[in-house]
Amino acid sequence: MKKARPSPCTESDLSDRPASPREREMLREFLRLKRIMERLRDREHGCPWDVAQTFETIAPYTIEEAFEVAEAIARGDRRDLCEELGDLQLQIVFHARIAEEEESFDLADSLHAINDKMIRRHPHVFAGAARPADAAAQTRHWQELKARERQQGEKGSKTMPESVLDDVPRALPALMRARKLQERAARLGFDWPDIAPVIAKVREELDELEAEMRAVEAADGGQSSADRRIADELGDLLFAVVNLARHLNVDPEMALAKANLKFIRRFKKVEKQIHESNELMAGAGPSLEQLDRWWEEAKEEERRD
User: Fold this and answer.
1) What is the pTM of this model?
2) Alpha-carbon dihedral of residues 297, 298, 301, 305, nearest 10 degrees?
3) Which of 18, 131, 181, 226 is at 20 to 30 A from 57, Cα to Cα?
């Protein structure tokens, strides 16, 4: 006997349900933030710095705040994450206020757009469609819906993109953009079916980098040309490593962020040993071999913890 499909969540379920006391507090605080920004942007009584900002000048701060959110997540620091999410929300309200002032859109328009998009891209939740088997199936379905929407948007646009890669944002961090480009190419079948050739490609790119390094060392060419060739080969290697991360379902940006934090933790322990040894040795610095031993001790200590 087939299970009855659960009834879809309707628009009235979302909008007509009375707000709980905590939800009302959320709305009050969000409205308070919006009004704080309005006051800060007031030409006569506001803050000169906030008044002077534009989309372009604020964008770097928005990116920075997003990375600080990611860093708090990587550290597992929930208190800091709470604060960083607030900072990121400020950026959203800031951009929306600038848009409202130039009468292009306001915060309500932005919220309406994302609400509609989330409902549209989850028909299994909001429209009674069959539920995807798992998260991977839902991801594929999401990408299909997104591609369909993009095609429909392009039909009404005067400038049709020539490639599926054209609308991958150039402002993304390089590792993130590399993964996005690879994902887009994979939708057209430009991808390996399993991980073995992906690993082989990483080894191939490393071999090519080493070969270029040997060629540069043996040649008498200009340094700038040599640096450029080595940078090209290193870029190819990094791109191949990002592809390996994609096949392992690992976010390369987050993986590198965690590696950075791990390096900081371990190096601080080595630093402590350096300071203590300098006191004992009256200023004589430790050897590289000693530094390496302390590094290995720091690694072992983390494994025990």
Assistant:
1) 0.65
2) -170
3) 181
Residue 39 in domain: yes
Q: What is the dihedral of CA 83, 85, 86, 91, to 10 degrees?
A: 130
232 pLDDT more than 60: yes
Centre a 10 Å sphere on the Cβ of residue 172 and count the other Cβ atoms it contains.
Answer: 15
User: Which CATH number does the domain housing residue 46 bear?
Assistant: 1.10.287.1080
3-state secondary structure of 139: helix
Within this chain, do residues 243 and 262 fall inside the same structural domain, yes or no? no
Other CB atoms within 10 Å distance of the CB of residue 274: 16
- The total domain count for the chain is 3
Structural domain for 285, as ranges:
254-304
Tens of pLDDT along 181-205? 999 999 889 999 999 999 999 999 9
Residue 280 is encoded by which pair of tokens? 């004992």
Q: What is the C-alpha to C-alpha distance for residues 298 and 292, in angstroms, rounded to an integer?
A: 10
Q: What is the residue whose two structure tokens read 């039909």?
A: 155
